[in-house]
Amino acid sequence: MSEKIIYVVGTGPGREEGMTIEARKILSECDVLTGYNVYLDLLPEELKKKELISTPMRQEEKRCRMAFEEAAKGKKVAILSSGDAGIYGMASLMLEIGKEFPDIDVCVIPGVTAASSGAALLGAPVNHDFCTISLSDLLTPWETIEKRLRAAANGDFAMVLYNPSSHRRKDYLRKACEILLETLSPETACGYVRNIGREGLESGVMTLGELKDFEADMFTTVFIGNSCTRIERNRLITPRGYKI
Ligand code: SAH
Asked: What are the tens digits of pLDDT across the range 143-176?
């Protein structure tokens, strides 16, 4: 019997150029590609000729089970997750559900996460110790998010905020900034990137005081510097500490 396998593939921020060669190769070798319909739409035409199974957002569990059912038939299946599949992505859910399908191997393929692709566009905002925090309270209690924001501020970490806003949570970035401003200076250097690798790419730098009133959307990633981060020629620099 041939080995049954599902790949959980991080597809990078958007365009094919942002995919790793390994991810691209695995997608071309698979029979079935499953994912959120927005991400399937972004795929190169050649891959769209494969069997595609799309599900809307918030139906992640259903999508995972469908992927396992296809793999159980002996097809080579990939489940697509934007950025890196193991950073606010599908990797953990696939491994959890995978316990119900012991004869199917789950293989995670890394991708370029928004913290990396966004940082590159802004310069070098996370070139020292940093943490990522998601502001989505769909699966995490808001109290936990607040606790982590305070801990990151107290630790003088540079931060990357994922999921800074959605239709339902328009004021979350403001609430997060207010918490950070309990500890951090309003002059703290910050930035944002929107639609990395997609149509509508936009980025900018600002202070934490200004970020409080910034309107992010669900395709925005927000960067907050540490106490040494500075803005130079419209770029964010978090120094490693070299004496130059
Ligand atoms: N697994 C993804 C993150 C998914 S959570 C990754 O590793 O990048 C969704 C959040 O990721 C968005 O709200 C946004 O903050 C960020 N994000 C994902 N793709 C993005 C893109 N193309 N441009 C800007 N931010 C993005």
From this structure: 999 999 999 999 999 999 999 998 888 899 999 9
Element (H or E) spanning 71, and its range?
helix 60-72
**CA end-to-end span of the chain:** 61
Q: Which of 109, 144, 169 is the last residue of a domain?
A: 109
Residues framing ligand 1 (Cβ under 6 A): 13-14, 81-84, 87-89, 113-114, 118, 162-163, 193-198, 218-221
CA distance 74 to 68: 10
pTM, 2 dp: 0.96
Location of structure tokens 């059912």: 69
Mutation probe of ligand 1 site: the residue of 20, 195, 220, 223 with most atoms within 8 A of C-beta: 220
- Contacts of residue 54, defined as CB under 8 A and 6 or more positions apart, other chains included, come to 34, 35, 36, 37, 40
244, part of any domain: no
Domain around 103? 4-109
Q: Which amino acid is at 85?
A: A
